[in-house]
Write a structure and sequence with these properties.
The protein has about 110 residues and is mainly alpha-helical. It folds into two domains: about 45 residues, no CATH class; about 45 residues. The chain contains three helices and four strands, in the order E-E-E-E-H-H-H. The strands form two sheets. The chain has a two-stranded antiparallel ribbon. Strands 3-4 form a two-stranded antiparallel sheet. The protein is extended and about 55 Å long. The protein starts with 19 loop residues before the first strand and ends with a helix.
Length: about 110
């Protein structure tokens, strides 16, 4: 159950129920509400909803920076970019096949 307010000890990121504290909305939430992270205790400091809102807001405020970062990554790692595109194209084509098949079945 979510609790409001910061924990008494700022280092206490987990409560007795095993829930984690979101550093942005100041609520304790289940671990499923946090993205995994390679730093610290293995979870992001912000819950999924706060992180999504922040990323969305930041992108809309500075789209050119995100596009430049993506282009720089693609130029730095061309082989990885090709692999990512190959996988994305396969997923896209599989989704199209599924949708076309579904539409054919619906018209019968």
């Amino acid at each position: 159950m979510a609790q409001m307010g910061r924990p008494r000890n700022p280092l206490a990121r987990f409560n007795a129920e095993g829930e984690r504290w979101c550093g942005h909305c100041c609520l304790f939430m289940p671990l499923e509400q946090f993205y995994p992270s390679k730093q610290g205790d293995g979870y992001d400091n912000w819950c999924r909803e706060c992180r999504k809102a922040y990323v969305r807001e930041r992108y809309h405020a500075h789209p050119e920076q995100d596009l430049a970062r993506a282009r720089a990554w693609a130029a730095r790692y061309p082989a990885r970019r090709r692999a990512h595109r190959r996988i994305a194209n396969r997923i896209y084509k599989a989704r199209l096949r599924f949708e076309r098949q579904w539409q054919r079945e619906q018209t019968r």
